Amino acid sequence: MEYNKFRIRSYECQSDRAQVENLERKCEVGPSESVFLFTDTMGDPICRIRNSPMYMMLVAELENGLVGVIQGSIKVVTIQGHPPKDLAKVGYVLGLRVSPHHRRKGIGSSLVRTLEEWFISNDVDYAYMATEKENHASVNLFMNKFGYTKFRTPSILVNPVNHHSFKISTNIEISRLKIEQAESLYRKFMGSTEFFPNDIGNILKNKLSLGTWMAYFKDDINIGPNGQVPNSWAMLSVWNSGEIFKLKIGKAPFCCLLYTKSWCLIDKIFPCLRLPTLPDFFNPFGFYFMYGVYHEGPFSGKLVKALCKFVHNMAKESKDEKCKIIVTEVGGRDELNHHIPHWKLLSCPEDLWCIKALKSEGLSINNFHELTTKTPPTRALFVDPREV
C-alpha cells in the first residue's frame, strides 16, 4: 500500500528486526523534555503483543529504510449491553513510533489507518488506545484526526523495589490459588467489569503470569470448594513484564541524579532507618505488573496492602536483580488508589484511554455512546497485562 513515497507493510522479523530496534531507540516515550523512557525489547520487537490472541505489526518503509512502526492486538472483552452476551471484539493500538526526522509527513496517520483496516477486516467492534494526556501529538492524531473519544482516565501506580522487606501482619493469611480457582473467582467477581478479557484462563496459564494470591484474616473462613469467600478478602495476580522488555530513563536533570545517589548513600550508611530506596533507573530495569486486583469486605483495604507488600518482597527476593518497580493500573476513581502503596513521584494519576466505534450499525453506535458518556465506574477496571 503506497502513501506518498513510503510504503506500509507487515513486519518481517528476519529483515526488519534490527531496524525496528534502532527506531525504538531513537523514539523517546513520555511528555517531559528532561526525562523520558527507552524500551529495550531484548531482541524481540513484537514482544508486547506476542501473547495476545491475535496481533499485527506494521512498518512504514521509505527508500529501503524503516521510518515508522505500529502494533495492534485483538481480543474479546466484556462490554455491558453489547450483544451477544455482553461481549465485544476490541482492537488495541500501541507502539506507534515515527522517526524524528520523518514526522508530520503523514506516516503516523497512514500506520493508524492501515491498522484500523486490519481491525475492520477481523470484525472488530471498537478500537482503543492509551497515551499520556500531555502527549499532545498523540492526542491530536487520535482524537482530532481519527475521531477517538476519551473513554477512561485510570491511574498508573508505581512503587520502587527497595533493599528492605516489608513486614506483613501475623493475623493475615496469604494463599496461592490454583489456576482453576483463580479463573473461577475472576469470572464470578470481575466477569462483568469493563474490558474483562474473555480468555482470562489463557492469561493465568501464561508463563509470564507468576501466580494469583488471595489474602484474608486468619480468624475468617478460607475459600471453599463451592466458591465461598471470607467476609473480607482480596486477590491479585502478578505478571513478569521484565521477562519480555526492559525500561531505561534516557535523560534526567542533574538534581534527579543527585537525589538518587544521595538517597542510596544514606541508606547504606544508616540501614537501620530502613528508608525506601529509589532504584537506579538509568540502567535497563524490569518490573512486575499486578493485575486483577480485587477486594471485598469492610477491612479488605488492609488485605490489599498486605498483598502489595507480599509482591514487593517476592520481587526483592527474586533471582532477577533488575526488577526495580511494582506497577499496577486501576480506575481513576477506584478506592484501590488509597490502598495500593505507590510513590507519587513515579506514578501517573491520569492515563488517557480513548476509544472509537468501527462499526456503523445502530447497536454499536448506541453502546459506544453509553461507554463514552456514562459516569466512569468507581471500581474495578480490568487491565490486561498483555497490553502493558
Q: Would you kindly provide a written description of the structure presented here, covering whatever features stand out?
A:
The chain has 388 residues and is an alpha+beta fold. Helices cover 26% and strands 31% of the residues. It has helices spanning 13-26, 107-121, 136-145, 179-189, 200-205, 254-269, 300-317, 362-373; strands at residues 2-3, 6-10, 36-40, 54-62, 65-78, 87-98, 126-132, 149-152, 155-160, 172-177, 209-217, 233-240, 246-251, 286-296, 323-330, 351-357. The strands form three sheets. Strands 1-2-4-5-6-7-16-8 form an eight-stranded mixed β-sheet, with helices on both faces. α7 links the parallel β14 (286-296) and β15. The radius of gyration is 22 Å and the shape is globular. The model is unreliable at 31-35 (pLDDT under 50).
Task: Provide the fold topology.
Blueprint: E1 2-3, E2 6-10, H1 13-26, E3 36-40, E4 54-62, E5 65-78, E6 87-98, H2 107-121, E7 126-132, H3 136-145, E8 149-152, E9 155-160, E10 172-177, H4 179-189, H5 200-205, E11 209-217, E12 233-240, E13 246-251, H6 254-269, E14 286-296, H7 300-317, E15 323-330, E16 351-357, H8 362-373
- Terminal CA distance reads 29 Å
Compute the CA-based radius of gyration.
22 Å
Q: Beta-sheet strand percentage?
A: 25-35%
Name the average pLDDT. Answer: 86
Number of helices: 8
Tell me briefly what this model is.
It contains eight helices and 16 strands. The protein has 388 residues and is an alpha+beta fold. The model is unreliable at 31-35 (pLDDT under 50).
